[in-house]
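A quick aside before the break. I want you to see a complete sequence-to-structure record at least once, exactly as it would be stored in a machine-readable document. Don't worry about memorizing anything.
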Amino acid sequence: MLPPAFRPLTQPLTPSTTRPYDHLTWLDANRLAPAAARVLAHEPLPAETRAYLDAAYAQARAQWLLRKTALQRFLALMNQEPSLPVILLKGAALALTLYDDPAIRPMNDIDLLAPPERLMDGVARLRQAGYEESGLAPGSDAGYLHHFIFVDRATGVRFEPHRTLPMLPAGNAGLDWFLNQTERHELEGAPFLTLTPAAQLLHAAAHAVLEHGGEQSAVGVWFYDIDQLLRRWGETLDWEQVLARAQILGWEAALHQAIHLARTWFGSPLPRAIRAWLEFPVDQLSGYNDFRSATSPRRTTSLAVLHIMRGLTWRQRMQQMMHMLLPSRAYMQRRYPGLPWLLAYPYRWFDAARKLH
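That is the input. The structure line, written in tokens, reads:
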């Protein structure tokens, strides 16, 4: 059976949907067109739809080859002695280990996690290797919120080394669990780590729902990841452990919503072990208040930033607040090109305060 999100593509295009291609445009916005091209490869489609999907897949394939080149160079740098273990996250990790064709999993950047005591070693290597650093205070140990941002100059591919996972509770207990939930893989001989399937699922749910607003504003491919995780691992996961960890982290309501949306959009199979749990009202689950705040139509960027900052240490919070209030002159000139840089500061403060309401 075709996933619900892809079924409309099998219907003839009518004048009302050809300008613009409403559903195709929605697929593009949600980074799902390459996946639709693969799923519908043997389905009879209108010629215009087939051409659109073929072009989307070809573009995604070219983008993946570029990212693969950048990732190989990055892994070679991290694996120089003394090697620095890196955990690939989200799109890159799933493209390489879950999808049979990495090209159908588009990504804007490559996220990774390193043990806190080794993170700055990795950052130093990237700086020494000539990666372009961006953020509020390049060259410092502050980064931007929970990560640093570097761009491979040769390919333009962005890497984001994380100091923690967004939306984790404060303290090291949550992060320590994820750091110990890893599997080893290789990309053409270069070793890297990913999270285990259970940890991938929890992180994917929190990322899509708590960090990015769930159905309100999250990108559809993130729920397709959850669909694919359920199809591959749903019946073999230790769901008792998964739900227990979700409750400890305060992510149970987010996980519930993420699985519900994956099923709604993609017809995800429901593992037998959680069918009763999925019938629970979401307001009875752990983390419901955070879930409600994160998915509210009133959610703002400033409130989302404050939510992420709860997972940082007090020193990191103060450091981030200082850099957010007083970013570097170079950053302000890039961020607000139409304003004299001195006037850009009060504008920034007013705009941030406005978005808190």
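Two observations worth writing down. The mean pLDDT is 87. Residues 301-354 form one domain. We'll return to this after the break.
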